[in-house]
Request: fold
Amino acid sequence: MLQKTMLRSMKADLLSLVAATSATAALAALLPACGAPPADDLDHAEEEYVSERADAIVGVVKGRDACAAVRCKEGFLCEEQDGSPVCVAVPPPPVCQTDDDCIIVENYCGGCNCNALPLGESLPKCLEGEVACLVSPCLGLRASCQAGACVVANEL
Reply:
């Protein structure tokens, strides 16, 4: 009796294993057909595959989260655009919020230049050699914060 029960249990385990293997094989065949790389290849994808458009889900998805089945490469995030999932680059964090977060710096490296930098940052080391300027390159200019970046603006 015990032997019969063990045999039934082993048969059930074997059937479960066969079903799981079949499901995995079906999924492995389906993913390339949808244009998606195997999940283990996503971390080591070639540079050309930045996944600008996530075509793993073809067509418009209505009433569901289009990004639910999409995994974007590092540095990208999924956004729904016209019902389709699209991997877009993660925007850099803003370096400033107000004009007071920026300073204006005269830059004589290779020419008479004026740069706007976030507070606490400095110009990189000059490798071209500095020049002499007759007039300050920042005369009449100011640093301004626009769209989270420090830029040179005219003084008004």
Q: What stands out?
A: The beta strands are 76-81, 84-89, 102-107, 113-118, 141-146, 149-154. The chain has one helix and six strands. Residues 2-34 form the longest helix (33 residues). The CA atoms of residues 43 and 73 lie 7 Å apart.
